[in-house]
Known about the structure:
Helices cover about 35% and strands about 20% of the residues. It is of the alpha/beta class. It has a six-stranded mixed β-sheet, with helices on both faces. The chain has a three-stranded mixed β-sheet with strand order 7-8-9. It is globular, with a radius of gyration of 20 Å. About 35% of the residues are buried. The mean pLDDT is about 85.
Amino acid sequence: xxxxxxxxxxxxxxxxxxxxxxxxxxxxxxxxxxxxxxxxxxxxxxxxxxxxxxxxxxxxxxxxxxxxxxxxxxxxxxxxxxxxxxxxxxxxxxxxxxxxxxxxxxxxxxxxxxxxxxxxxxxxxxxxxxxxxxxxxxxxxxxxxxxxxxxxxxxxxxxxxxxxxxxxxxxxxxxxxxxxxxxxxxxxxxxxxxxxxxxxxxxxxxxxxxxxxxxxxxxxxxxxxxxxxxxxxxxxxxxxxxxxxxxxxxxxxxxxxxxxxxxxxxxxxxxxxxxxxxxxxxxxxxxxxxxxxxx
Length: 295
């Protein structure tokens, strides 16, 4: 029997959902950072084995939104509950349930779907604390099973993975076995550039940027992939921060992004990055739609 289906990774911001997704796939599918709300889109990743295929869906962290973009992210994550065979609630093993976890639990109870509890970062937690916190989380919802693991260290992933496979219904391969994500190339390129900006900047910059790939094409008569991307910020002062003194920060963003992209595409890449102002884009419906954050 071949099993297949959809598994959503749900949780508060910064609990390690994207790190877990990458660990389960053994490939970098979602960008990661230590900043909350790094994931802004629904990201699908495909894990194919001989007798099963799981489509994992990484979702934005559920939080109290402060702008229209945040509201769209929460809406996207919440709507995913209606589309999947299984929901895995990802929490931090070393933290007790907070108000945000209770808010998510209310959503999960209303959704009436199969639930797994996944206590991530178990390597940072003493055994007695892990047991106590697990019991507190288990009071929030009716879970089919619970798992302790470390996504960062790739520890104890297989029990969770096998239990998810066992729960899925009989079904076909939805995607070719070699495919690991259905995200378009332009989206992946933009996310990698955004990841490097998040990595290299501080203050409010990571939350205020958006990246759009305007052009990707092979240069005529040369083994070189030209990529032109625009980085949008909300205020003039942020342009200088992104560019850096003498253009050094933007150059470093380009270098780090190009290294990842050349490994991904197997091609030499010329990366042209431009920084532009798009005022208050996180609260403008037409801009969110253009940037791909609203349907």
